[in-house]
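Would you kindly consider the sequence and fold I have copied below?
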Amino acid sequence: MAAGRVELDRIDLAILRALVFDSGLTNKAVASRLGLAESTCAYRLRMLREAGVIIGGRVKLNFSALGFPIQAIVKVRLESHNAEHVNNLYAKLTLVPGVIQAFHVAGEDDFHLHVAVESPEALRDLVLKHITNNRVVRQTETQLIFEARDGVGILADQPPAAR
């Protein structure tokens, strides 16, 4: 989804930082934290959504707590790069149970899939039954994720030297 750049002021950025840190905050909590009137905060949130700056709302899951302790990145390389093949496979990959996120990438690989599964056997089955059985897939490579940490994101304050 490509969109034009939206001009944001310091209050908009403060609202976004608060929500990125804790997406479960209510309007009242964000307003209180930032010293804003609730109506002002609600208006700005609505404008941020309408402008496409805030898209959707997501809950971050603890995969292990849900019985899916094994995470991996599955790299997929295609035999054919025909637009129809690429788009069809991409759509299929996003529907595979266990796929958390699918990335269409440039470089040696065509797709990177972040997956979570309950066992090594389930990981093997996911790759064999849902990925390599597609005729356009030439090769896969699976990398286990030992640990994942969130980065500071794009709204983090710049280091002093970069200001």
Notes: Confidence is low (pLDDT under 50) at residues 158-163. The two ends are 29 Å apart (CA to CA).
